[in-house]
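Loading example: each entry is read as two labelled lines plus one structure line.
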Amino acid sequence: MERGELKAWFCREVLPLEPSLMRFISRNWRNADDTSDIRQDVYARVLEGASRGLPTNVGGYVFTTAKNVMINRARRTSVVSIELVSEIESVMPGADWLTPERHLDGRQTLRRVIEAIDNLPPRCREVIRLRKVEGFTTRETAERLGVGIDAVQQQTMLGMRAVTDFMLGGEGKIIRPAEKPRCSKSAKS
Amino acid sequence: MNSQAAIEERAAAWLLRMSDGDCSEACAREFEEWLDASFEHAAAYWRLEHGYEQLDRLLSLPALEAGAEPRRKLPAVSKLLAMAATIAGLVWSGWFLLGDRLTVGTPHVVAYSTQRGQISELTLADGSQVSLDSGTTVRVGTGPDARKVWIDRGRAFFQVSHDRDHPFQVYAGASDIVDLGTKFVVSRNKAVVATSVLEGKVRFSLSSPGNSRALTLTPGKSAIATRATIRPVAGDLRQMRNDLAWREGMVIFEDTPISDAIAEFNRYNQRQLAIHTIKAEHIRIGGKFRFGNIDGFARLMREAYNVDIDILPGSSQPEPLRER
């Protein structure tokens, strides 16, 4: 399948399920720090499967994949709990799988946008505001704020991730890297 | 198991690069390789791109989706902005962030905004009146910041109570508008700001450092400012008054190309008009319409001009074709 098609399908059919998916993962996995990782695992597998053939029931497919991801993880952790595994195996799909939140009316979606930006820490928020509302580039933003380009890039990337998390149905917490991220030479300007 | 976090960071770095337009051919190839290397990369990048771009889509929508590109000579203020600014409505509750100049934050600022299709009238403490067009956000200063208004997006019509000792000031991006008289309109779409004066005088200036360009505008005069320039534009009082019809919930067209008229309607409505007749661009229309009545307008277009026009349900994003 052509990559553009796969991407379009993913954005249109899978991403709107993120709120339901995150709720499902949180309900069934004790360690809250793992939920984003699990989500990404699920997406990667869904893409892999879909690249071979699009599922007819997307919600069901994503749900089943999520179950399997969590079961596999539970089995791999050293403190394996038989109860955990069987709990996950016995979960039935909830009604919310049937209502992907892609039809949020314009007002609600926009409210989320504002909340998303509001929830950013001040420096990050200002950078995102200058870039998105004012339309400044990285360089222009750096000049306006009197900071280096690196700092603007950092804040932009943090903001991108937090806004995305929020927009797609999470809480948009800023995840600070434990150490400075090592972008390869080619990913920096 | 933190590899996903590392992948997300990498994806963000790539997205930043792409959105800055800072990617040569060699870089683009490297990006493709990275993207293809694993479905985890694709998942992270597509998700981030989708989420981050939702912001763009919702914050600004240029919309010439109806019919052909209209030809323009010297664009009058309102047309330029109507073209550039089909702005989705925003409910902006609590974001009282600082002015555009990063002054120290003050809590004496209240934000007001209108949604798509909504207009609103504010009366300020000093008696000044501010009318907000559809999809507009302003922040109004009170207390020590009284007589100051920031316009973040959209269009507002000001009727200012005159006070020589405390000039009324509007801040819009990189420009300042200082009221020297009474009635004027300010519109803003990102970095483009337009001002028109109905009565009295305003001083319209750029406030960026090293650049103190200013124009004094009298009734009937309009000007447009970007971050670096400010220039007068064509227009007259009659047109300006027509362009204020939104305050009564109306739009006025005079020899207006039909695609412009449709774009204007679409700014005010969730449901969108779409025109299918190929040779429609030569059709020009005139008249005064309630902008909320798109059904009436569509019916009129069909009957009077034989134009094939549809009303699509409210979605600002074109849907890709799906199999049924």
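Chain A touches chain B through 61 residues (CB under 8 Å).
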